């Protein structure tokens, strides 16, 4: 079996981050603590060593509740994007995410501010 390239490992890690339920608290931290366009390392979000930088922007079509997540590794000149349903993320549980301070139905300051600025509120 062929060993995965560094780029393939990054792709798998980032795909897992946006698709696996166990990583939802990490994404919640991204949307809660980082304003749109501010870069952070994936390692800061998921606690695993290494990884690319990540940021997010609101949907380019102003689709309510959606964001585009950007992953980038400058050293490898690698990038990946994912379209993400942030509203679903924060409606996942009635109790919110443990330790995140976010409760379902409450406002996410970073994401809500970006959504409001796009809609002119």
Write up what this structure looks like.
The protein has one domain (about 5-120). The protein has helices at about 5-20, 25-35, 40-45, 85-90, 110-120, and strands at about 40, 55-60, 65-75, 80-85. It is of the alpha+beta class. The radius of gyration is 15 Å and the shape is globular. The chain contains five helices and four strands; from the N terminus they run H-H-E-H-E-E-E-H-H. Helix content is about 35%, strand content about 20%. A hairpin with a 7-residue loop joins strand 2 (about 55-60) and strand 3.
Summarize, please.
This protein has 121 residues and is α+β, with helices and mostly antiparallel strands. The chain contains 5 helices and 4 strands. It has one domain (6-119).
Summary tags:
121 residues; alpha+beta; 5 helices
- Please tell me how large the radius of gyration is: 15 Å
Mean pLDDT: 81
Largest sheet: 4 strands, antiparallel
Describe the strand arrangement of the main beta sheet, using strand numbers: 1-2-3-4
How many strand units? 4
Shape descriptor reads: globular
- Helix-strand sequence: HHEHEEEHH
What is the helical fraction, as a range of percent?
25-40%
Through-space gap between termini: 54 Å
